[in-house]
Amino acid sequence: EAGVAQSPRYKIIEKRQSVAFWCNPISGHATLYWYQQILGQGPKLLIQFQNNGVVDDSQLPKDRFSAERLKGVDSTLKIQPAKLEDSAVYLCASSLGTSGAFTDTQYFGPGTRLTVL
Amino acid sequence: AQSVAQPEDQVNVAEGNPLTVKCTYSVSGNPYLFWYVQYPNRGLQFLLKYITGDNLVKGSYGFEAEFNKSQTSFHLKKPSALVSDSALYFCAVDSSYKLIFGSGTRLLVRP
Description:
heterodimer; A: mainly beta; seven-stranded mixed β-sheet; four-stranded antiparallel β-sheet; B: six-stranded mixed β-sheet
C-alpha cells in the first residue's frame, strides 16, 4: 500500500515570496491533515479536511496561509507571502475515518522542509 | 486545556537495556493517547494508542506503553533497546478531535 506522498521535499525561498506544497493521501482515506512542525517542537495542526470540506482550520493563519482539497483527494497548502517564522517542516497526514474522530490512526508523509531567508 | 508533557529532551540507553520515555497528560474527560516515532527526514510513524481497556498497550517494533490514570502518565517502554530505535518520539493526546503533540524526546541507543 502506497503511503502519503508529499512534494517538494525541500524548498528555500526568500521572505515575502509565495510557496505551495502538495499532498496525495493514502487511497481511500477521507480525512486529510496539514501540520506545521517548527524545529524542536511537536507538530501543530493547521487544517483538517474531511473529503473536500474543511473540518477545522482554527489554527491556520488565514491572512497568509490557504489550503484546498479539490475533489476530495489531493491537497495543496499555500503560503503567500512567507515570513521568516514560517520556516518549518510541513507534514501531511491522512486517516481512513469519515467521522473526523482522532481515534482513527493518522498516517504521515515525509514532510516538506521550508526555509525562509 | 488539554496538553501533554514530555519532561526529557533526550534519553540515553545502552543497547540491550530496557528503555522508558516519559509522557504525562492533562485532559478533561477520557484521554485518548498516542505515541509516534520520527526518524530523520521522514514523517511520523504511529506506534500505539490507548483508547480504553487494558492499561498496558502493545504496539509496533516491540514497544508498549502503560496508561496510569492516577499518575496521569502514559510512558513508552521497551524491554531491550536496539540501536535502530534511536529516533525522536512524540506523545500526543486527542483534544476535541485535534491531536496535541508533546515537544518530543530524542532517544539515543548506544552500541
